[in-house]
Design brief:
This protein is α+β, with helices and mostly antiparallel strands. About 55% of the residues lie in helices and about 20% in strands. Strand 11 (about 435-440) and strand 12 (about 445-454) form a beta hairpin. Helix 1 (about 5-55) runs antiparallel to helix 3 (about 145-180) and helix 7 crosses helix 9.
Length: about 450
Amino acid sequence: MKSIKKDLIITLSSSIAVVLIIIHLGGFFYFKHRAQETLDANLVKSAKLIFGLINHEVSDEKYLDFWKKIGPALQQKIFHRYEYKIHAQAWEGGHLVYNSDELFTVQNPDYEGFEDIKINGEGWRGFSFYDPESNIKILVLESDLIKNELVFGILFFLLAPFLLSFSLLTLIVIIAVNKKLKPLGYLAAEIKKMTAQTLQQLQDPNLPIELKPFVSSFNSLIARLAEAIDGERNFTNYAAHELKTPLAAISVQAYILANNKNKEMEREFLRELLNGIGRATHLVNQLLTLSRVEPDNINIEKEKFDLLKLTNSILKNHIQKSEEKNLAIEVNCNAEKSQLFINGNKTYIEILLGNLIDNAIKYSPKDKKISILISEKNNSLSFKISNHGDQILPEEIEKLFNNFYRVSRLKATEDNAGCGLGLAIAKKIADLHGATISFESKNYINSVEVLFVL
């Protein structure tokens, strides 16, 4: 499992190390170049000095005698440990007239200027120049050991502050990361303490701004989760209560039927038993539908389809029910054909419209008319179904879309017996599609309108 703290420390420390390495390498190569230039300048200066001495005194017998006397003495006395790493020779007319070390002799070079050469497997930096007027050639050599020792000294000089600064900066990074990630540890501890019974929103005014969106989203999730848990609890209680009635009725009817010997009454009890089974089956089907329809489910499959065609198709399944009550169902469309198409889950929309049509038939008095109007309204497609019925009060309308809510004034006869889930399911499906659903009761005409955004 990846660790943000570990990744931050590694990333920041690596970045610091790379930057420090680049800075120190730049300094190293710069000082190395400057050191090489300084050493080369010393070679040139030494060559000029030797040339000046030899050019001035080369024909002077006194100088030659003097050099023969002092040369061996100077070679025997060591003034600096680098003496053997610097060598000089001079030729006049091709004849060697000066050699700083009699035990180390180099052939007359065939180059002028600077040259890196190998002598007995050892690297040397050489500088040679020839003066045509005096016919003198000077060669000054410097061992690479001097340069290497100087370069490694610079490298060590740079390495010490690099290691020190890297260690200090890494320590600062670790302390800073641990301190800045403390709020995450606090959030994790608070969330870990929560249970289904103790869901509570996170509250801490000292949280960093960057964590505010997370906390806000988490609190919103907790609120929805708490609401869902309460809804599930209420749903279970209501479902158990609603199932008691039809099951009790079925049980009583079955008991009477089993002990009844009157054939005429037997048929009546059997009809009541079948009605009870039908109501229980309807309730179970509605409960299953309600459990499948979740407003937070945004991954449902959607397609474009004709709302008018779907409405006519659903009405065919309700012909028998409407004919039993001698109801006339009228469908009108005031929208252009191109505007009849909505984008949604066809199965869910079919359930929504089916519930609305079923409710209209169920709660309409006999010998009345049910009107369905499909129209374009404010860049939305409206489905409005109206039927005659009892006047619904405003305070009752607010509760119509709640689970298991039924207007207590309406008698639960065979014609309008329901479980109070039809409009609740319709509301959930509408929410799932970003549609709005509303109920209106005016002059004993009850209307439900669904607005689908085009």
